[in-house]
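Fold sample X.
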Amino acid sequence: MSERLLQALRRGGCAAPYQGAWGVWRGRDRRGSCIGQLSDMAIETLQLAGDVGRLGEEGEVLVWTGQMARCEETRNLKTPLPAGQSRAPRRSPLLIVLSVIEAPEDKALAKAAVSRLLGDLEQALSGQKVTQNWDPSLHVDGVGGSRTGGRMAGAVRANRRLAQVEACLGRADLDLLYQLVVQERSLAALGANLGQSGRKLQLGLAQRLMALARAYKLSVGTA
């Protein structure tokens, strides 16, 4: 996927059906020139990652809704603290869920599964960086190593792995993990969708992370 097209979307452009694919424009006025095209697979991957969404009532027009857009939306909601006080760091919803996994081996597998999922999304997007940095000393069988082959071949393999994971987990649970891992939705929002809250919600999400590790056939190895 062209980084140039992703940058256009991030900077206020839009995507819409165009000549059998998805055209990309630098602005939201499509009377201008289309600067390139994205495949249906690329658009679906962006949608699954929560990076593009529909523009108002125009169901066929997609705009950027990813991290940069969400940061811009919430920037004005942050109120200043009195002088001399600082904000306590907030743990992400994912780290909260990981914290309820007690066995170190299981926690390592869950972290590796998250890294594998993000890595596959990164490869599927062929250029958009979505990875998180976990402990570099962690070694898990089947994770890591050099990636060979062209970018397109890597994207195809990543999409194939994502399809296999979806077949194991089901679309609903995989979408839930996308919301937790990629979109970083709050536990309150996730709980509202599931009708759960508190530790029951956290344990349920942790179980889905372990199911993700099983879907990737991961096992803990030696460092």
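Fold sample Y, listed below.
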Amino acid sequence: MKKILPIICLFCTARLLAQSSGDGPLKVFGYFQNIVQQESLNRKIGVLNTFALQQLNLFLQKDLAKNWTSLINIEILNNYSSARQWGALNLQEAWVRYRHSAALSIKFGLHTPVFNHLNEIKNKTPLLPYIIRPIAYETSFEEFITVDEFAPDRANIQISGYVPWRGVKVDYAVFGGNGPNINSDPGKGQTGIDTTGTMMAGGRFGLRCKGLKAGLSFTYDRYSQLAAIEDIKIPGRDDYGEIPRVRFGIDAQYHFDRAGIESEYIHVNYHDKNDEINFDRDFFYTTVNYEYREWFSAYLTYWLIQQQALPVKSKMTVYSLGVSCPVGERITLKLQSGKVLSNTWLNKVNIGRARGNYYDAAISVFF
């Protein structure tokens, strides 16, 4: 009950806030996506069938003064219930932004930073064709896949904008925030704060020209006690200190007539002096889509994710096909199916091989 009390208070005071003084009314809106899924990804379990509220995002937005805007984003995942210990409830964003011009915008507070193409818009489910998004951005999987390893989920300050130049728009964004070493144990002091003296820094630089959009992204931070996090122990070394971590991303998309293609690549590298460990990760996806009518589009997508925690290495590939059917401006119906192939190696010996399929139907709503 303590976890949901702030949300109840927020709803109860929304009308009063909307009537309060300020430069504009309080805007309340959001997205949610309900799904039904059949999957056969584990032979021991067999076929699973389930319904789920996959994701819900509730936004509160208010213009505070000329050029000043604030926003709160509350995210609910996987049939959230605190009593039943289902899913998760996250305060995903709470920021204020000053927009001087198209060339300069400063955002301060908790927010999702710009990284590659999909990171900043991954929660806009009615606008995306996917039911299951490319894995590095599928937040409903964060209970068993470390999705925030691939793309930064949270930052605390960002400067961004774009500059026209000879028919091309040059985009930029630089951001900073806490590193990955956040305290979650009340016994060790205040939770939710960075436990080190280092910070995360990153950015994206890109261009847009007609139907083309492309960019390069990066982040730099330092990971402490990596061995404990990964549950891997190497004799004679219990604490790895603060290991530098670099994320590097490339994104590109091109739209022509009714067709389009988009791709992303992310590499995560840990620069540790000890050759005994290697925690590098790679992610790649490419999607080809075609809009047959305004009310019907189809896509074919391929995903690849590789992770290492030597001596263990894993690889998963996904081939997926889907369709998206907007119903008016606020409802989107979706179908998606996919084939999953995964392998795990221990010292180059294959110790786990699995394959399976999933079939999903969903309705996404913008309210």
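Sample Y note: Residues 66 and 87 are 39 Å apart (CA to CA).
Also: The radius of gyration is 22 Å.
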